[in-house]
Amino acid sequence: MRFTKDWKDYEILDAGDGMKLERWKNVILSRPDPQAIWKPVRPDLWKQANAKYNRSKTGGGSWSFYKNLPPKWTIEYGSLKFYIEPTGFKHTGLFPEQAANWDFIREKVVAASARRPVRVLNLFAYSGGATLAAAAGGAEVYHVDASKGMVAWAKENAVASGLADRPIHWIVDDCGKFIQREIRRGRRYDGIIMDPPSYGRGPSGEIWKMETSFYPFLQETVKLLSDDPLFVIINSYTTGLAPSAVAYASDVVFGAAHGGKTVAGELGLPVKQSGLVLPCGATGRWTP
What we know:
Helix content: 25-40%
Distance between the termini: 22 Å
Number of strands: 16
Strand content: 25-35%
Number of helices: 6
Strand order of the largest sheet: 10-9-8-11-14-16-15
Radius of gyration: 19 Å
Shape: globular
Protein backbone atom coordinates (compact mmCIF):
# COMPACT_ATOMS: atom_id res chain seq x y z
CA MET A 1 0.00 0.00 0.00
CA ARG A 2 1.27 3.46 -0.90
CA PHE A 3 0.93 6.33 1.52
CA THR A 4 2.86 9.34 2.73
CA LYS A 5 3.70 10.38 6.27
CA ASP A 6 4.57 13.91 5.16
CA TRP A 7 1.16 15.52 5.71
CA LYS A 8 1.15 18.12 8.49
CA ASP A 9 -2.14 19.89 7.73
CA TYR A 10 -4.16 16.70 7.25
CA GLU A 11 -4.66 13.48 9.20
CA ILE A 12 -7.29 10.86 9.90
CA LEU A 13 -7.85 10.92 13.64
CA ASP A 14 -10.09 7.86 13.83
CA ALA A 15 -12.26 5.66 11.61
CA GLY A 16 -15.11 3.22 12.11
CA ASP A 17 -18.84 2.56 11.71
CA GLY A 18 -18.59 3.57 8.05
CA MET A 19 -17.13 7.01 8.86
CA LYS A 20 -13.76 8.73 9.14
CA LEU A 21 -12.82 11.63 11.40
CA GLU A 22 -10.39 13.94 9.62
CA ARG A 23 -8.39 17.00 10.61
CA TRP A 24 -8.00 19.49 7.78
CA LYS A 25 -5.56 21.95 9.37
CA ASN A 26 -7.67 23.37 12.24
CA VAL A 27 -11.02 21.99 11.06
CA ILE A 28 -12.32 18.52 11.97
CA LEU A 29 -14.80 16.82 9.64
CA SER A 30 -16.71 13.56 9.95
CA ARG A 31 -17.37 11.96 6.55
CA PRO A 32 -18.66 8.60 5.30
CA ASP A 33 -16.17 5.92 4.29
CA PRO A 34 -17.61 2.48 3.45
CA GLN A 35 -14.20 0.85 3.97
CA ALA A 36 -14.29 1.60 7.71
CA ILE A 37 -16.30 -1.48 8.69
CA TRP A 38 -14.85 -1.72 12.22
CA LYS A 39 -15.57 0.23 15.41
CA PRO A 40 -13.87 3.54 16.21
CA VAL A 41 -10.97 3.39 18.67
CA ARG A 42 -11.85 6.70 20.37
CA PRO A 43 -15.61 7.44 20.13
CA ASP A 44 -15.15 10.45 22.43
CA LEU A 45 -13.02 12.25 19.82
CA TRP A 46 -15.89 12.45 17.36
CA LYS A 47 -17.58 15.13 19.46
CA GLN A 48 -14.84 17.51 18.29
CA ALA A 49 -16.14 17.55 14.71
CA ASN A 50 -16.90 20.97 13.25
CA ALA A 51 -19.25 19.32 10.73
CA LYS A 52 -20.59 15.92 9.74
CA TYR A 53 -21.82 14.63 6.39
CA ASN A 54 -25.00 12.56 6.71
CA ARG A 55 -25.91 10.14 3.96
CA SER A 56 -29.54 10.01 2.86
CA LYS A 57 -31.28 6.64 2.52
CA THR A 58 -32.58 7.83 -0.86
CA GLY A 59 -29.10 8.81 -2.12
CA GLY A 60 -26.84 11.80 -1.67
CA GLY A 61 -26.80 13.54 1.68
CA SER A 62 -26.13 16.81 3.45
CA TRP A 63 -23.83 18.45 5.98
CA SER A 64 -24.65 19.17 9.58
CA PHE A 65 -22.58 22.18 10.60
CA TYR A 66 -21.83 22.43 14.30
CA LYS A 67 -19.28 25.08 15.19
CA ASN A 68 -16.64 27.46 13.89
CA LEU A 69 -16.58 26.15 10.34
CA PRO A 70 -15.12 28.60 7.80
CA PRO A 71 -16.77 28.48 4.36
CA LYS A 72 -13.35 27.94 2.79
CA TRP A 73 -9.78 27.56 4.01
CA THR A 74 -6.35 26.41 2.83
CA ILE A 75 -4.07 23.53 3.72
CA GLU A 76 -0.48 22.91 2.66
CA TYR A 77 1.49 19.91 1.46
CA GLY A 78 5.12 20.93 1.15
CA SER A 79 5.17 23.91 -1.21
CA LEU A 80 1.67 23.17 -2.53
CA LYS A 81 -1.40 24.90 -1.16
CA PHE A 82 -5.04 23.87 -1.65
CA TYR A 83 -8.39 25.46 -0.92
CA ILE A 84 -10.74 23.21 1.05
CA GLU A 85 -14.51 23.61 0.94
CA PRO A 86 -17.14 21.01 1.96
CA THR A 87 -19.40 20.28 -1.02
CA GLY A 88 -22.87 18.79 -1.35
CA PHE A 89 -21.38 15.50 -2.54
CA LYS A 90 -19.39 14.99 0.71
CA HIS A 91 -16.14 15.94 -1.01
CA THR A 92 -13.82 18.74 0.12
CA GLY A 93 -11.99 19.50 -3.13
CA LEU A 94 -8.98 17.31 -2.38
CA PHE A 95 -8.05 13.63 -2.14
CA PRO A 96 -5.12 13.72 0.32
CA GLU A 97 -4.11 10.10 -0.33
CA GLN A 98 -2.99 11.23 -3.79
CA ALA A 99 -0.01 12.99 -2.18
CA ALA A 100 1.90 9.71 -2.57
CA ASN A 101 1.49 10.10 -6.35
CA TRP A 102 2.32 13.81 -6.25
CA ASP A 103 5.72 12.95 -4.74
CA PHE A 104 6.35 10.38 -7.49
CA ILE A 105 5.32 12.80 -10.26
CA ARG A 106 7.46 15.63 -8.99
CA GLU A 107 10.50 13.37 -8.55
CA LYS A 108 10.21 12.01 -12.10
CA VAL A 109 9.69 15.45 -13.63
CA VAL A 110 12.54 17.10 -11.72
CA ALA A 111 14.99 14.40 -12.81
CA ALA A 112 13.94 14.55 -16.48
CA SER A 113 13.56 18.33 -16.78
CA ALA A 114 17.18 18.78 -15.82
CA ARG A 115 18.09 17.45 -19.28
CA ARG A 116 15.06 18.19 -21.51
CA PRO A 117 11.63 19.85 -21.62
CA VAL A 118 8.86 17.76 -20.07
CA ARG A 119 5.19 17.89 -21.02
CA VAL A 120 2.53 16.27 -18.80
CA LEU A 121 -1.16 15.63 -19.45
CA ASN A 122 -3.55 15.43 -16.49
CA LEU A 123 -6.95 13.99 -17.48
CA PHE A 124 -10.05 14.14 -15.24
CA ALA A 125 -7.79 16.53 -13.37
CA TYR A 126 -10.20 17.68 -10.60
CA SER A 127 -8.69 20.39 -8.38
CA GLY A 128 -5.18 19.96 -9.73
CA GLY A 129 -3.03 18.23 -7.11
CA ALA A 130 -1.11 16.26 -9.74
CA THR A 131 -1.05 19.29 -12.05
CA LEU A 132 0.63 21.41 -9.39
CA ALA A 133 3.11 18.67 -8.51
CA ALA A 134 4.17 18.37 -12.16
CA ALA A 135 4.34 22.14 -12.64
CA ALA A 136 6.38 22.59 -9.45
CA GLY A 137 8.82 20.00 -10.82
CA GLY A 138 9.31 22.02 -14.00
CA ALA A 139 6.87 20.49 -16.49
CA GLU A 140 4.55 22.13 -18.99
CA VAL A 141 1.13 20.79 -17.98
CA TYR A 142 -2.18 20.36 -19.79
CA HIS A 143 -4.95 20.19 -17.17
CA VAL A 144 -8.22 18.80 -18.56
CA ASP A 145 -11.55 18.41 -16.76
CA ALA A 146 -15.16 18.56 -17.92
CA SER A 147 -16.20 20.70 -14.93
CA LYS A 148 -15.71 24.43 -15.37
CA GLY A 149 -16.02 24.90 -11.62
CA MET A 150 -13.28 22.37 -10.83
CA VAL A 151 -10.90 23.92 -13.35
CA ALA A 152 -11.51 27.30 -11.71
CA TRP A 153 -10.82 25.71 -8.32
CA ALA A 154 -7.56 24.24 -9.64
CA LYS A 155 -6.52 27.67 -10.93
CA GLU A 156 -7.08 29.11 -7.45
CA ASN A 157 -4.87 26.37 -6.01
CA ALA A 158 -2.15 27.22 -8.52
CA VAL A 159 -2.25 30.88 -7.50
CA ALA A 160 -2.18 29.97 -3.81
CA SER A 161 0.82 27.68 -4.46
CA GLY A 162 2.77 30.41 -6.25
CA LEU A 163 2.53 28.58 -9.58
CA ALA A 164 0.30 30.98 -11.53
CA ASP A 165 3.15 31.90 -13.87
CA ARG A 166 4.02 28.30 -14.75
CA PRO A 167 3.10 26.90 -18.20
CA ILE A 168 -0.20 25.29 -17.21
CA HIS A 169 -2.94 25.07 -19.85
CA TRP A 170 -6.39 25.05 -18.22
CA ILE A 171 -8.88 23.19 -20.42
CA VAL A 172 -12.60 22.59 -19.83
CA ASP A 173 -13.46 19.70 -22.12
CA ASP A 174 -14.59 16.10 -22.36
CA CYS A 175 -11.39 14.08 -21.95
CA GLY A 176 -12.26 11.64 -24.73
CA LYS A 177 -12.85 14.39 -27.26
CA PHE A 178 -9.74 16.23 -26.12
CA ILE A 179 -7.40 13.30 -26.67
CA GLN A 180 -8.85 12.72 -30.16
CA ARG A 181 -8.02 16.31 -31.07
CA GLU A 182 -4.53 15.95 -29.58
CA ILE A 183 -3.92 12.83 -31.66
CA ARG A 184 -4.87 14.76 -34.81
CA ARG A 185 -2.64 17.67 -33.78
CA GLY A 186 0.29 15.34 -33.23
CA ARG A 187 1.00 16.66 -29.74
CA ARG A 188 2.78 14.18 -27.49
CA TYR A 189 3.28 13.90 -23.73
CA ASP A 190 6.07 12.52 -21.57
CA GLY A 191 3.77 11.83 -18.65
CA ILE A 192 0.04 11.08 -18.52
CA ILE A 193 -2.12 11.04 -15.39
CA MET A 194 -5.75 10.02 -15.29
CA ASP A 195 -8.38 9.68 -12.58
CA PRO A 196 -11.47 8.51 -14.48
CA PRO A 197 -14.82 8.46 -12.67
CA SER A 198 -17.03 5.41 -12.28
CA TYR A 199 -19.71 7.37 -14.12
CA GLY A 200 -19.75 10.85 -15.54
CA ARG A 201 -21.06 13.29 -18.13
CA GLY A 202 -19.04 15.60 -20.32
CA PRO A 203 -19.91 19.29 -20.88
CA SER A 204 -21.99 18.35 -23.94
CA GLY A 205 -23.72 15.39 -22.32
CA GLU A 206 -21.10 12.76 -23.19
CA ILE A 207 -21.54 9.60 -21.10
CA TRP A 208 -18.64 7.88 -19.34
CA LYS A 209 -19.10 4.42 -17.81
CA MET A 210 -16.00 2.82 -16.35
CA GLU A 211 -16.92 -0.72 -17.35
CA THR A 212 -17.34 0.17 -21.04
CA SER A 213 -15.30 3.36 -21.51
CA PHE A 214 -12.05 2.72 -19.63
CA TYR A 215 -10.19 0.25 -21.84
CA PRO A 216 -11.02 1.95 -25.18
CA PHE A 217 -9.91 5.21 -23.56
CA LEU A 218 -6.51 3.69 -22.72
CA GLN A 219 -6.17 2.44 -26.29
CA GLU A 220 -6.51 6.02 -27.56
CA THR A 221 -4.46 7.65 -24.81
CA VAL A 222 -1.39 5.55 -25.55
CA LYS A 223 -1.18 7.32 -28.93
CA LEU A 224 -0.27 10.52 -27.06
CA LEU A 225 2.89 9.20 -25.40
CA SER A 226 6.19 10.63 -26.57
CA ASP A 227 9.07 8.51 -27.86
CA ASP A 228 10.84 8.95 -24.51
CA PRO A 229 8.01 8.71 -21.95
CA LEU A 230 8.41 8.98 -18.20
CA PHE A 231 5.24 7.52 -16.71
CA VAL A 232 1.52 6.88 -16.89
CA ILE A 233 -0.49 7.01 -13.66
CA ILE A 234 -4.00 5.55 -13.52
CA ASN A 235 -6.14 6.11 -10.43
CA SER A 236 -9.47 4.46 -9.75
CA TYR A 237 -12.06 4.72 -7.00
CA THR A 238 -14.46 2.38 -8.77
CA THR A 239 -15.76 -0.29 -6.40
CA GLY A 240 -14.76 -3.76 -7.54
CA LEU A 241 -11.94 -2.68 -9.86
CA ALA A 242 -8.88 -4.28 -8.26
CA PRO A 243 -5.41 -2.71 -8.51
CA SER A 244 -4.29 -5.85 -10.38
CA ALA A 245 -6.96 -5.18 -13.02
CA VAL A 246 -5.66 -1.63 -13.44
CA ALA A 247 -2.13 -3.03 -13.88
CA TYR A 248 -3.29 -5.65 -16.37
CA ALA A 249 -5.10 -3.11 -18.57
CA SER A 250 -2.17 -0.71 -18.37
CA ASP A 251 0.40 -3.35 -19.34
CA VAL A 252 -1.75 -4.63 -22.20
CA VAL A 253 -1.85 -1.11 -23.64
CA PHE A 254 1.19 0.91 -22.51
CA GLY A 255 3.50 -2.05 -21.91
CA ALA A 256 2.76 -3.51 -25.32
CA ALA A 257 3.53 -0.20 -27.03
CA HIS A 258 6.56 0.94 -25.04
CA GLY A 259 7.75 -1.96 -22.90
CA GLY A 260 8.21 -1.36 -19.21
CA LYS A 261 5.91 -2.45 -16.42
CA THR A 262 2.96 -1.23 -14.37
CA VAL A 263 3.23 -1.48 -10.60
CA ALA A 264 -0.19 -1.23 -8.99
CA GLY A 265 -1.48 -1.15 -5.46
CA GLU A 266 -3.76 0.62 -3.05
CA LEU A 267 -3.44 4.20 -1.89
CA GLY A 268 -3.98 4.70 1.81
CA LEU A 269 -3.91 7.13 4.70
CA PRO A 270 -2.60 6.44 8.22
CA VAL A 271 -5.17 6.51 11.03
CA LYS A 272 -3.73 8.19 14.11
CA GLN A 273 -5.61 6.30 16.82
CA SER A 274 -5.13 2.78 15.47
CA GLY A 275 -1.72 3.17 13.84
CA LEU A 276 -3.11 1.31 10.81
CA VAL A 277 -3.67 2.48 7.23
CA LEU A 278 -7.12 3.11 5.74
CA PRO A 279 -7.36 1.93 2.09
CA CYS A 280 -8.51 4.74 -0.20
CA GLY A 281 -8.41 3.55 -3.82
CA ALA A 282 -6.41 1.82 -6.53
CA THR A 283 -3.47 3.25 -8.43
CA GLY A 284 -1.16 1.97 -11.14
CA ARG A 285 2.16 3.49 -12.23
CA TRP A 286 3.54 2.48 -15.61
CA THR A 287 7.19 3.29 -16.29
CA PRO A 288 9.30 2.25 -19.30
